[in-house]
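ok trying again, last paste got cut off:
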Amino acid sequence: MVSRYLCGLMWLVLITHALPSAAATLLTSTDRDTLHQNEYLMLTFTLQGSDTRLRGDGIKPNIDLSRLTGDFELGPIVTRHRFTLANGQGQPVSTLQLALFPRRSGSLLIPSYQLENGRSRPLQIRVLDPVIEAAPEVFVRSGATELKLLPQQATLAYLDLYSRVPLKTARLGAALDATSHALSVEILPARDSSTLYHGHQYQVTRSAWRVSAARSGPVTLTLPDIWIETAAGRRLRLPVSRVRLNITEPVNTPPSGVPVGTVQIRQTTFDAPLIAGQSYPWQVVIRSTAPLSALPQQLPAQTLPPQLMVYIDRSERHIDDSRTPVESVVEYTGYLMARGPGEFLLPEIRLSYFDPQHGAVRAAVAPAQRLQVQAATASSPATLSGAADQHTPAPTAMNWRRSILSALLTALALTLLALWWQRHRSRPRNQQPLRSQQPALSAALLAALPGRTLDEGLSQWQTQHGPDTELQQLVLDLQRYYYGRDKRPDGEAALSHRVSEMVQRLHDRQRVTQPPASDDRWSPRSFTPGGQSGDQ
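nice, full thing came through this time. structure:
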């Protein structure tokens, strides 16, 4: 009998442990089974009834996606994990989704996958030949502005997306990749334009990268693919493209730290005479086709006359991609001031660069300026506000009227303030303590209690002397009489008698509990003036 029960219990345990694994199912599905070769489909793996999470990449993936790379190119992987309720029971659900781009036309197979005890069924995909259009809805062009470069010389790698239909989404599949690690890459913001191509108007979105290599040698740039979904629901994937750059050493090696590319310098010109002691905004702008990192952090040094002072406040660095070729821009902003009158020469600003077209070192120069400085007069006081405040306008009738009106308004405001202050000081202040605001009987009882209110005094009294039911009842009756609705004519007389007796009892109780004075000459009380008088 015992063995029969043990066998039944064992079978029950085995069935209970087997139920969750039997409920685990692995499903594969696609959003479509027929497409053209230049389109892509979405493949989804779904695992239900198991705590296992699907992984297609990383360490020890449980879905081997390399089995698909023979017929498809793989897009980014997206995984989701959630807990759902079905028929009143909860079960975990894990999904893995990715885009597949067919490599060839024909009948392609997505094989069966197995995970735990769940197995998915194989899927057959029919791939049609790509549609050849004279004016395609979407296409891409890529390249670089310069393919033969010198070390540290910049070129622009671009990826132009042409579309003549509205797009729902368009994104790059990856980042720019290169075979060389000694590569400087500056990501430029995307720019939109429009152009006419084969009789159709196209919207063009350019993604560009400014690239420069640190040393010579061949460099291959892999421009990312583009994943597109049109507003009509058509899904396309424009494949990756590659650009090969040839980096060669020049015959004349440029000096270290010299920018490789053209350089232009301009500065603020001062045509009108300056006023001594006034500061004038001064700006120097350097534009170059060299990388932004090759331009100096500080303004090239100048030898200034002793009477001229130059202060550089800040420098701003950015890339101007609105021009062709793209330029690096550094703006040095500051102030210039002459200490005294006279004629001074603001020196030229010179910056050396290596011209890749001529293979030689050249210099960009902002020419020197001859400044005429006049002495400061009463009509042109020295100021630090800049050139915009050089000529202070003379007072006019309108300015006088504004000054008079401002003075009247100020006097009126001060008068009103003085009246308010006088009224505020003459108003009697109610500085009586909180005890005097109590009714007469409550105030009399409160005077014998250690507190600001009856409740506070009652609480402190009972803390020091123990519970007192008679005092509690008296406080309650006083509150009912003064703040309750039922007020009897003879109530106040009775309460007055009770309050008098209670006050006397409280005073007697305090005298009884007060400790006697100590005659100990070493007690703290004996060191006070009152305590020492008895000894003297």
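cool. Helices lie at 2-23, 397-426, 440-447, 454-465, 469-483, 491-513, 529-532. The chain is about 20% helix and 40% strand.
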